[in-house]
Amino acid sequence: MKKILVSQCLYGGEPVRYDGKSKAETDPRFLKWKEEGRLIPVCPEVFGGLPTPRADAQRVGDKVIARTGKDVTFEYMKGAHEAVRLAKEHDVLCALMKEKSPSCGSNKIYDGTFEGNLIDGQGTAVELLRKAGIKVFSEEQLDRIEELILEND
């Protein structure tokens, strides 16, 4: 059975999001994959050494800047490299990452103004995962992951 790398905040359990909350996915397909042991939870931000809760951050070009003005690019990149390492170690089928996140967003991210504006873009971990050849999807694309599972199991 092929594994799927998944954002810890979608996986549920211990909260890892900047606001200390969870965004656990409840779709029956996701819950089935979780029960099967198919999911490998990761939080690049926590892997990079950031605490929970923490100041929210947004990607601005190649940098990630916290609302406080602190540059947290190093921590985001450190965590992104760990996510890639785990994806390769487990030879994952794909990754299912939390949309809009500065590390895990796969299609949309916030624009860096902290005003709630979304732009086309990807988070730091997603960028590195894709550069490593790993297919990345958001929680809005479970149908595509389901198709991949059917084709590869």
Q: Which secondary structure elements does this structure contain, and how are they paired or packed?
A:
Layout: E1 4-7, H1 8-11, H2 28-36, E2 39-42, H3 44-47, E3 57-60, E4 63-66, H4 73-89, E5 94-97, E6 108-110, E7 118-120, H5 124-131, E8 136-138, H6 142-152
Parallel strand pairs: 1-2, 1-5, 5-8
Antiparallel strand pairs: 3-4, 6-7
Fold and architecture overview:
- With about 150 residues, the protein is of the alpha/beta class.
- About 35% of the residues lie in helices and about 20% in strands.
- The protein has six helices and eight strands, in the order βααβαββαβββαβα.
- The strands form three sheets. Strands 2-1-5-8 form a four-stranded parallel sheet, with helices on both faces. A two-stranded antiparallel ribbon has the order 3-4. A two-stranded antiparallel sheet has the order 6-7.
- Strand 3 and strand 4 form a beta hairpin.
- Helix 4 runs parallel beside helix 5.
- The model has no long low-confidence stretch (mean pLDDT about 95).
Summarize the structure.
The chain has 153 residues and is α/β, with parallel strands linked by helices. It contains 6 helices and 8 strands. It has helices at residues 8-11, 28-36, 44-47, 73-89, 124-131, 142-152, and strands at 4-7, 39-42, 57-60, 63-66, 94-97, 108-110, 118-120, 136-138.
